[in-house]
Write a structure and sequence with these properties.
By secondary structure, the chain is of the alpha/beta class. It has one domain: 3-Layer(aba) Sandwich (Rossmann fold). It contains ten helices and ten strands. The strands form two sheets. The chain has a six-stranded mixed β-sheet with strand order 6-7-8-3-9-10, with helices on both faces. A hairpin with a 5-residue loop joins strand 1 and strand 2. It starts with a strand and ends with a helix.
Length: 272
């Protein structure tokens, strides 16, 4: 379980990215983080694992306050947090299997990682994870030979190789087409459900968040302005988060796009 208590971040320029954010994410819950550009979504995720140093507040993963840890303890605690990036963050010259095994770097001695001699148990787990994300036949391919959706699946498998207690997911579908985006979101939600794994997903696509997230938190100017289930994300709530817009017209457009994609897929299947 993750607890954020009064989490704030002010940069040296005086700009405030987060202001007194307090949230609890229980086991198994998938929380979508939405808001306009510059609202603090990525900063929030990066403050949790201290890729960005919070100015004040607490980040409690279980009973451990990550904000108070020194470098050595923080490095060990980060093994408990899996991170999935928008731009995949893979080592492109390495194979898919090697990228997944890199999720074990925090658990093996340096010489093993340098020589790529991982324990058999780690290799077996990596194969299971590749099978779970649908990439078993691509295990020996270089990462730069994969499509965007396949690369994101490698990123998911790598994060799971850490055996994390929390997943932080930063805009996992921003570089993907609508169909692949839905497939990736479905995979993430299934995996979190199977492992009772909590996740925070920074996502810019509001309809996608409403479709797959159990809970949605809306940020504006670094503050939480909405926190509730997807069906409570009304036009008034969206206006509070993003500002005025014809939200009903946008939702109608999203439905039309989804219907067109489904029709195109059905035609392709009929041809095959």
């Amino acid at each position: 379980m993750l607890h954020l208590q009064g989490l704030s971040k002010t940069y040296k320029t005086g700009d405030t990215a987060l202001s007194d954010v307090s949230l609890t994410v229980p086991k198994g819950q998938i929380m979508g983080l939405i808001g306009p550009s510059g609202a603090g979504k990525s900063t929030l995720i990066r403050c949790i694992n201290r890729l960005v140093e919070p100015t004040s507040g607490k980040v409690l993963l279980g009973d451990t306050d990550l904000v108070r840890l020194g470098k050595g303890d923080l490095r060990r605690q980060r093994r408990r947090i899996g991170m999935i990036f928008q731009e995949y963050a893979l080592v492109e010259r390495l194979t898919v299997m090697e990228n997944v095994l890199s999720g074990r770097l925090g658990y093996v001695p340096f010489w093993r990682s340098f020589l790529r001699r991982y324990p058999p148990s780690d290799i077996e787990r990596a194969y299971r994870l590749l099978d779970r994300v649908g990439l078993m036949e691509h295990a020996d391919k270089r990462a730069d030979a994969l499509s965007g959706g396949q690369r994101q699946r490698v990123g998911i498998a790598r994060a799971l190789a850490q055996e994390p207690e929390l997943l932080l997911v930063d805009e996992p579908t921003a570089s993907l087409d609508p169909k692949t985006s839905r497939q990736i979101m479905r995979l993430l939600t299934e995996i979190c459900s199977e492992n009772n794994l909590p996740a925070i997903v920074n996502i810019h696509d509001v309809p996608l968040a409403q479709q797959f997230m159990q809970r949605i938190v809306g940020l504006r100017a670094g503050r939480v302005v909405f926190d509730g289930p997807p069906d409570q994300l009304t036009e008034a709530a969206l206006t509070e988060i993003y500002g005025a817009e014809d939200w009903n017209a946008m939702r109608a457009g999203d439905r039309e796009q989804a219907a067109a994609e489904a029709e195109a897929q059905a035609r392709m299947e009929a041809i095959v």
